[in-house]
Amino acid sequence: MLKNSQDYKEWIDVATELDILAGKGEIERHYFDVELVTNVVKKMKRFMSKNDVYALSSLLQNSVLKKDFGGIENPLIYSNSYIAVHPIIPEYFRVTGFALDYICRHQDLSLQEKQRFLKKVSVNFGKTALCLSGGAFLAFFHFGVLKAMYENDCLPDIISGTSVGSFLASIICCRTNEELEQVFHPSVSENAKTLTNDFFDKIKNFYNTGAVYSVERYRQDASWGCKGDMTFIEAYRLTGRVLNISITTYGSTFKSICFNYLNTPDVIISSAVTASCACPLIIPPHSILMKKEGKKVPFLDLGKLWVDGSLTADIPEEELHRTFGVKSIIVSQANPHIFFFYPKGTPGSPNKHRNGHGWYSVLT
User: Fold this and answer.
1) What is the three-class DSSP state of 4?
2) Active site located where (predicted)?
C-alpha cells in the first residue's frame, strides 16, 4: 500500500491507517525524556502568554534548541511504527516553531538582538544535511526521496552522495529550482542513466582493464546529471546548494575525502562522481579532473587514484559536521545489507520480522 502512494500526503494517510491496524498508537515512553520535553513545552507557552520575550529567548538558547534535546532524536522513537509517535513530540516542534516566530516578530527586541539570538541558536542547533548512500542500481530509489522532500519544501541545502548516490546528488545540486521542476518529471529516466555499455563492450573492457566499464564512458553518462563539466564552486554559485561527494584514495592506505566547493572548488563534478562509483571489478581506479586556466588537468593535491567512496565513508557524518556545522543527518540508505544491522527497524520503516526483533537477533 505504501509503495503505491503517489505523494507524501497519501503516504501519511496510509501509514496512519497501518499504525492503527497494528496497534501502534503511541510510542513507548522510555525512549526519551517525556517529562522534560513536556515541562519545556509548558514553559514556552507560559512565557508567551505572559509576554516575557527575554525569558523565552533564554529558554530557547539554553535548553530547547539543542541537538537531541530530551532524547527526541533517538531513532527508536521513529522505528517501531510508520508514523505514530508520542503526541508531545509534534507538539514540541509546533510550539518551538511558534516561539521562534514570536521572538522574530516581537517589537521589544531590536533588530540587532534578534540577529544575535538567531545566530546563537543556529550554531547550537546546527545545520541539516541529506546523505544519499551507495547501493548500485538500488540507489536510484533516492530519487523518490529527493522528489518528495523537494515537493514538501524540506530539501536541505547540504547534500552528500556516495557511489551512485553521488550521481543523484549532483543532479539536484547542479540545477536551480526552476530546472528541478523538469527533472522530477518521469521522462527524466531517459537521461538519468549510467553504465550503458553493451555486452561486448563490457567483455572488452574487462579483458583490457580488469573492470566491466570504462572510466570515459561512465564519465560521459554522468555528465548529463552534472551538466557537463561543471565544477563544485560553479554548482554552488548557481544553486546555493552544497554538494558533497565521498571518495576514497587508492593505495596502501585507503582514506576517505569529502569533495565540496570548499575543499575542492575547481574539481569537475562528473569526474568526482565517476571516481566515487569506481567499485572494484566495475570501474577501475582512476584520477580526478579539475579545471585550471580553462583546461582539464589531473587533480593531484590529495591523491593520484581514487575508488568508491562507500569503501570507507558511505555517510560522511564527521566531515559534514566539521566543515559545515551539520548536526542533523537525514540518511536515504539503499544498501541492502544494512537491513541485518537494524533489528528494530529504521525511521518510517518498522521491522515486521519476529515482532520487531528482526533477523539480526537470530544471527547473534
Assistant:
1) helix
2) 163 (nucleophile), 308 (proton acceptor)
Name the grid cell of 267: 574539481
pLDDT (mean) for 241-268: 88
Coil vs helix vs strand at 45 = helix
Residue 187 has pLDDT above 80, yes or no: no
Write down the residue that cell numbers 585507503 correspond to. Answer: 254
Question: Catalytic residues, which ones?
Answer: 163, 308
d(CA 282, CA 308): 10
Q: How far apart are CA 263 and CA 323, in angstroms?
A: 9
Please, which pLDDT band fits residue 360 given cuts at 50, 70 and 90? Answer: very low
Q: Cα angle at 184 between 178 and 185, to 5 degrees?
A: 105
Residue 230: the pLDDT is 93
Distances (CA, A) of 231 to 98, 242, 299, 304: 40, 12, 12, 19
Residues 6+ apart with CB under 8 A from 95: 41, 44, 45
Residues with Cβ within 8 Å of residue 199, at least 6 apart in sequence: none
Q: Mind listing the pLDDT tens digit for each residue in 205-234? A: 777 776 666 677 777 777 787 888 899 999
pLDDT of amino acid 355: 47
Contacts of 265 (CB under 8 A, 6+ apart): 231, 232, 233
Whole-prediction pTM value?
A: 0.75
Three-state DSSP class for residue 258: strand
Cα distance from N-terminal residue to C-terminal residue, the chain: 32
Written as one letter, the residue type at 222 is A
Run of H or E residues at 299: strand 295-299
Give the integer Cα–Cα distance in Å for 215 and 198.
15
Q: Tell me what pLDDT residue 196 has.
A: 56
Are 38 and 70 in contact, with CB atoms under 8 Å apart? Answer: no
Of 149, 151, 172, 148, which is closest to residue 160 (Cα–Cα)?
172
Quote the CA–CA distance of 314 and 139 in Å, as a whole number: 12
CA distance 98 to 121: 15
> How far apart are alpha carbons 237 and 79 in whole angstroms?
38
Maximum Cα–Cα distance across the chain: 77
The percent of residues above 90 in pLDDT, for the chain, comes to 28
In this structure, which amino acid lies at residue 32?
F
